[in-house]
């Protein structure tokens, strides 16, 4: 047979996806998935046991916009009373989280001492329970130790205690009722500590619980487009959460009413000071008028005098009104320039302040509230605070400008009226001096009397407004403790962790497949090469000793031997025109089973009385002689180097009835010896005596020693070992065929174990392939008894003979 003829054009086998194989891949490592699910379950159990549960309590309030609208309609009500805006719920929530509200709420709680019970996994706060009583005798209100005190009863009179401030955590003995000076305070443990359980306690200040109270608070709109505000609080202690939430909403309601009464109170205080002054002025002017009448015996001025006096009195009354308004304007200007709080009108300046001024003051108050809210979350130097300060300064500048314009207008009006008063005085100058003096005194008395009456009426109006002010919020439902945690929820934790374990197991299977660089099955090889696969040799389940390599003879009834016989059968179809077949066996690298396949193939041929000789042609690292127990002192290298004759290097294994030639001593030039014509002469001589000449060569992926033997062989078998050979090994047969024009190369898949994890997901469609196929089986359907006819799986122990 001419081995140099060009190989026929072949194409890769047609393959289709087999979804059953995909399912088998995952089922083959079901225990991986089971293990990851079990690990996830254990992690979930540990998480649920170790994480402190979080509880939520809720309450609701009604924000009474109608009440505010009624207050805005009352005479003399402050201008900052506005009907409630539903969009301000979040703003009200920030006010509720303000420091004043929360600190006042905490003062109403029994917060000074916290008791704890230490469990195996976590520490539980016992609030509101007190397993034993601790009394504080003296304590610095601010600078005292926040350490944890661990206590342990000794007997009914004494106990031991240690503090976390002590690095050594040393226990010291104390008596019940003994005054203990520690941590900048003096306290005593009055009642007996329970014997069961590990207890501890710590002292708290008001601000120590501020973050806990404010951090868990959340405000939201209970129902859309309503004035119902929902409030929730989350904490690890449901009773503490409910108590602190109830106190916070109570303080919020109280604080809301206090803020609304503050403006009315400021107005009343201002009016009281002015009324006291005008009362003195009325008395003074009245006394002067009475004295003047008595001294001058004046009873009733003439009607002209009365008209002039009346006109003068009206003008002076207007001057007084303008001066009073000027006082209000000056007070407002002082507030704007010097006060960082919201601006309150102390007088009703209607007719003086324009609509623009009212809008600017409302805008300024809104910006100040916004700044107070943001200061809860930002520092004073933060950019959002700086932006609001800039807006506040701009609005204040606009207010100051508006006040200046009002002040100029009042001064002009006062100047004009003063001119009118001058004219009225000139008119009265023509009246006799006594009557003129009387008219002036009468006018001054009337002005003071009217001013006093006006201020007194406004005071009554402000008092009525203050009495009518109530809080703009009403508690609808108080908070109740909820003992069902919102986190962690065991069902959700277990389900999420179980799904995580499931996907981790499946992902691990996919990852192992993706990272796998090795060949495992027939379909993968057929998808990479057009070279035909002549057979599949199954994996032997036990480690094979050097003297037991010929398993096809020693275990003739095993499935392994049957797989070797299948290869033997398919060899008869290759080089069928040759009486003596030279079979060259190679692979990519060492360790892929060339010698093992060579031995077993020779053994299965010898069983059918074929004359077989096995040649160890790997002159560098041959192990074939170990199988026959040879010392390898003489062999192929000896013959090729003309140090021995042919008869000297041929040995016979009587046990297996196989003739063989060992590699011999390692020569310095193995490649040159194999390329020498002596190798061809050796093969021709052996053709005369043997039907099969099996040559175990060096791996072609490492050295070129086997190339001359491959070109001389009738059949070339390329060994691919399942789980050892890498993907690139499957492309070498095609490359050899192309480079050397060979068409006698076939592949043997060695050590096939039907590894489903790395199985190819495709099924080869041989009807549409042009690869030149051979019949063989992977023997996966031969029962479940293993390789031996008498071997049973461990779970089939009842089938074993006693």
UniProtKB/TrEMBL annotation:
Q: Which GO terms describe its cellular component?
A: plasma membrane
Q: What class of enzyme is it?
A: transferase
Which Pfam families does the record match to this protein?
A: AAA_31 (PF13614)
Tell me which UniProt keywords the record has, alphabetically: ATP-binding, Coiled coil, Kinase, Membrane, Nucleotide-binding, Transferase, Transmembrane, Transmembrane helix, Tyrosine-protein kinase
Ranges annotated as spanning the membrane: 30-48, 460-481, 493-512
EC number(s): the record gives: 2.7.10.2
Q: What is this protein called?
A: non-specific protein-tyrosine kinase
């Amino acid at each position: 047979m001419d081995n140099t003829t060009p190989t026929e054009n072949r194409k890769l086998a047609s393959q289709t996806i087999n979804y059953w194989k995909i399912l088998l891949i995952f089922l083959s490592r079901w225990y991986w998935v089971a293990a990851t699910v079990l690990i996830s379950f254990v992690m979930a159990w540990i998480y649920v046991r170790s994480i402190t549960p979080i509880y939520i309590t809720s309450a609701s309030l009604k924000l009474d916009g109608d009440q505010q609208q009624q207050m805005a309609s009352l005479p003399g009500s402050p201008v900052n009373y506005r009907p409630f805006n539903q969009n301000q719920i979040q703003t009200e929530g920030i006010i509720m989280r303000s420091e004043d509200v929360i600190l006042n709420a905490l003062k109403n709680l029994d917060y000074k001492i916290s008791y704890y019970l230490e469990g195996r996994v976590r520490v539980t706060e016992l609030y509101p329970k007190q397993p034993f009583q601790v009394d504080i005798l003296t304590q610095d209100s601010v600078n005292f130790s926040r350490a944890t005190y661990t206590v342990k009863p000794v007997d009914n009179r004494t106990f031991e205690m240690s503090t976390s401030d002590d690095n050594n955590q040393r226990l010291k003995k104390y008596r019940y009722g003994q005054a203990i000076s520690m941590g900048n305070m003096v306290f005593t443990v009055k009642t007996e500590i329970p014997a069961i359980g590990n207890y501890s306690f710590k002292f708290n200040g008001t601000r120590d619980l501020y973050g806990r109270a404010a951090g868990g608070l959340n405000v939201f709109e209970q129902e859309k487009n309503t004035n119902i505000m929902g409030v929730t609080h989350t904490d690890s202690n449901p009773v503490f959460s409910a108590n602190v939430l109830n106190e916070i909403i109570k303080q919020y309601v109280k604080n809301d009413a206090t803020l609304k009464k503050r403006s009315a109170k400021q107005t009343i205080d201002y009016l009281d000071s002015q009324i006291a002054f005008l009362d003195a002025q009325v008395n003074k002017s009245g006394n002067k008028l009475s004295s003047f009448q008595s001294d001058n015996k004046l009873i009733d001025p003439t009607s002209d005098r009365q008209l002039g006096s009346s006109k003068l009195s009206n003008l002076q009354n207007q001057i007084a009104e303008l001066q009073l308004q000027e006082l209000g304007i000056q007070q407002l200007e002082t507030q704007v320039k010097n006060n960082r709080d919201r601006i309150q009108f102390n007088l009703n300046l209607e007719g003086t302040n324009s609509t623009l001024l009212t809008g600017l003051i409302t805008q300024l108050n809104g910006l100040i509230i916004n700044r107070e809210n943001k200061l809860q979350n930002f520092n004073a130097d933060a950019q959002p605070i700086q932006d609001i300060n800039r807006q506040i300064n701009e609005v204040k500048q606009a207010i100051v400008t508006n006040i200046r314009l009002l002040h100029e207008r009042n001064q002009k009006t006062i100047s004009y009226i003063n001119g009118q008063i001058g004219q009225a005085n000139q008119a009265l100058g023509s009246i006799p001096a006594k009557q003129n003096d009387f008219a002036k005194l009468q006018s001054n008395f009337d002005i003071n009397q009217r001013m006093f009456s006006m201020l007194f009426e406004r005071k009554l109006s402000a008092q009525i407004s203050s009495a009518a002010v109530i809080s703009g919020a009403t508690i609808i439902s108080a908070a109740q403790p909820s003992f069902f945690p919102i986190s962690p929820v065991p069902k959700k934790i277990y389900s999420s962790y179980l799904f995580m374990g499931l996907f981790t197991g499946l992902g691990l299977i996919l990852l192992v497949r993706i990272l796998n660089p090795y060949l495992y099955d027939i379909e993968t090889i057929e998808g990479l090469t057009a070279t035909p696969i002549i057979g599949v040799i199954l994996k032997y389940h036990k480690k094979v000793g050097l003297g037991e390599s010929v398993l096809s003879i020693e275990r003739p009834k095993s499935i392994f031997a049957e797989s070797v016989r299948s290869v033997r059968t398919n060899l008869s179809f290759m080089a069928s025109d040759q009486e003596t077949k030279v079979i060259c066996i190679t692979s990519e690298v060492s360790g892929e089973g060339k010698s093992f396949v060579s031995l077993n193939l020779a053994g299965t041929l010898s069983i059918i009385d074929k004359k077989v000789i096995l040649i160890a042609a790997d002159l560098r690292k041959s192990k074939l002689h170990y199988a026959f127990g040879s010392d390898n002192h003489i062999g192929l290298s000896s013959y090729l180097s003309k140090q021995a004759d042919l008869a000297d290097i041929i040995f016979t294994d009587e046990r297996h009835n196989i003739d063989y030639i060992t590699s011999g001593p390692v020569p310095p030039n193995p490649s040159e010896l194999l390329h020498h014509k002596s190798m061809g002469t050796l093969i021709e001589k052996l053709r005369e005596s043997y039907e099969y000449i099996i040559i175990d060569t060096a791996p072609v992926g490492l050295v070129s020693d086997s190339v001359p033997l491959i070109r001389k062989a009738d059949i070339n078998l390329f060994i691919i070992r399942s789980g050892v050979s890498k993907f690139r090994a499957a492309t070498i047969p095609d490359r050899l065929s192309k480079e050397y024009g060979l068409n006698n190369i076939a592949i043997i898949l060695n050590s096939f174990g039907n590894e489903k994890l790395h199985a190819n997901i495709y099924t080869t469609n041989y009807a549409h392939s042009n690869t030149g196929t051979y019949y063989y089986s992977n023997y996966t359907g031969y029962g479940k008894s293993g390789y031996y006819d008498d071997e049973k799986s461990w779970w089939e122990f009842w089938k074993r003979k006693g």
